[in-house]
Amino acid sequence: MAILGIQIPYRLPTWEDNGAYEALLRRHSRCNASECLYHGGREQAEGSGPWQLLLCSSCAAEGTHRQCSHLSNTTATWECDGCAGPGYQHR
User: Fold this and answer.
1) Which tens digit of pLDDT belongs to each residue from 64-85?
2) Which stretch of DSSP H or E encloses residue 13?
3) Least crowded by CB within 10 Å, which of 16, 61, 71, 85?
4) Domains of the chain, first to last
């Protein structure tokens, strides 16, 4: 556009200025197991091991600590009950 002599000022879109979409940029960070067993609470997690927070591999809208859903340390993915369907057994 500058080659054609048209100047366009750089500025962020107005919808970014008011923070209306800020929540969409945040990652889910809470254990949604019916009973959270972590001593630090639902809002805390560790980077690895039994207290690592796994997010649903389909929707990423729910999470669980490995220990709270009885998952092994080698389990790489997990699906919430809503995505897995009724009666699905997590292994």
Assistant:
1) 999 999 999 899 999 998 898 7
2) none
3) 85
4) 26-91 (3.30.40.10)
